[in-house]
DNA sequence: ATAGGGTTAG
C-alpha cells in the first residue's frame, strides 16, 4: 500500500491538505484503511487538528469502530477536549457499531483528563461487564486513571489483578506512588521489579526512579540507578541522560550533573541545557548559568520557555538584577517568548529579594495574566526579608481575596512583625490564627544514610534514637559556641504555638537531622539534608560554623535552592 | 496497525 506510507510521511499540514483533496478526487477514500490512516495523521499529535478531523470524520459515510477509537483517543490528550471525546464514545455506544477494548481504553483516558471519578467508575463497571478486563493496555490505563484522581488504592487493586504485569504496568505503579505521596515506596519498587523475573526496568522506569531520587534528595539511590543505566545501555537515551542531570542537580551535586552533561555532548537538546542551567541556578552558580545560556546559543540550540524560567531564577538566586531585567526584556523582543506566570514569578522574586518591593508589586499589577497565590506568596517572602510590614498586609489581603491564604502565610506575616519588633501585631496574628483554627503543619527535614531516608520534625519526640540525637546536638552547640555561634531565636518562628519557655530547647528539624548525620557517619562525610520549608537565619549560621568546626561539607536543600557549606562559608553568598 | 508510562518559578 503505497498510499498509506505516503500519508504517514506527511509531516506538515499544508502537505496533508493537498493530499486530502487528492484523496477526495480519487477512489482511495472508499478504502476504510486509507481513510483511517489519514484521520489518524490529522487527529493525533503532532498535527492534532481536532476540529478539522471532526469535519472529515462526519463526512465519511460509514464510520467503523477504529475511526471512532482514533477520534476518541485524539480528544483524550487535553482536558478541554476530553468531554467531547467522551461524547464520541457515547455516540458510538448508541450507534449499533460494537466497541472493543481499545474503545474503552480511550474512553478511560478521557475520564482521567475530565477528572471525573464517577463517570470513570461507571466505564470501569461497563468494562467489567463486557469482559475486557484481561486486556493489559486497558488495565494500565485504568491504573493511570485512578492514580490521576488520587485513588492510589484502586490503582493498586487493578495492578494486583494482573497475572503478569509488564514493564508499563510497573511504571504506572511507580508513577502512581510518586504522584500520591509515597515516593519512598516508589524507590523500593525498583528492587521488587528487578526481582520479579517477568520484566526488566526500561528507560521510563529509570526516568521515574531518578525523579523520585531527586525529590527525596536520595543520592545513593540515584547513583544506583545511574549504575543500572550504564549497565543496561540506557545512557544513550536522551530522556534518561537529561533526567540524570536533573537528579544530580536536585541532590545537590552540580559537579556530577555537569559530568553527565559533558558526556552527553552528542545528544544535547534544549531540555539538557535547561536542566543544566537550572541545576547551576539553584546551587548558587548564577554566573555560570548565564554563561551556559550563552554557550547554548553559540552551539545552535535555541532557548525555550522553560530555559528562560531557569535563567531568570538563576539571576534571582544570585542577585543578578541587571542581567535578569535584560534577559526578561530580550525574551520577548529577541526570542518571541511571551512571559508566563513562571517568568513573572522569577522577576518578582528577583526584584523582591533585591529590595525593590514597590517595583515588584508594580510588575504584578501590570501583568496581563492573573497573579496566582504563589506569586503573592513570593512577594510576601520578599516583605519578610526586608521587614516591610505595610506591603505584607496588602499582600495578605490579595491572598484572602483569592481564598488561598495558608498557615504559612500567616507565619510569614508574623515574622515580618516580629522582625520589626511589633509585638502587639505579633500577638494579634497569633490570636487570629487561633480563632480561625489555623494550624501549621510541622516542618520536616530528611537525611539519607545508607540508602535509607530518615525524616525529622522540629522538636522531634518520636525518633527511636532521640536521646542520643539530643545529646549529640547539645554537644555540637557547645562546640559551635566556641567557634563563635550565637543562637538567634528572635525573629524566626516556624511553629505558631511555641511559646517562650519551650524556645530555649526548641530545635528546627534540620539541626536534628544534622546531629543524626554526624552521629551515624564517619568524619569527613558530606551531610546532605533536605528541608521542606526555607532554612532560617539561625540554622544558616549554625551550619556555616559547623562546616568549619567539624570540618564537614554540608549541603542543604531548601524549598527554593541549595546552601552548600564548607570551611565556614556558604556558596549562596548569604544573599537573602 | 486505531497502543498504555514522564518536565516547568517559590
UniProtKB/TrEMBL annotation:
Swiss-Prot/TrEMBL keywords: Repeat
Keyword Repeat: yes
Gene3D superfamilies per record: Tetratricopeptide repeat domain
InterPro entries: DYW_dom (IPR032867), E_motif (IPR046848), PPR_At4g14850-like_plant (IPR046960), PPR_rpt (IPR002885), TPR-like_helical_dom_sf (IPR011990)
Pfam families attached to this UniProt entry: DYW_deaminase (PF14432), E_motif (PF20431), PPR (PF01535), PPR_1 (PF12854), PPR_2 (PF13041)
All copies of domain DYW, residue ranges: 484-576
PPR repeat start and end residues: 166-200, 269-303
Family: Belongs to the PPR family. PCMP-H subfamily.
Listed name of the protein: DYW domain-containing protein
Organism of derivation: Salvia divinorum (Maria pastora)
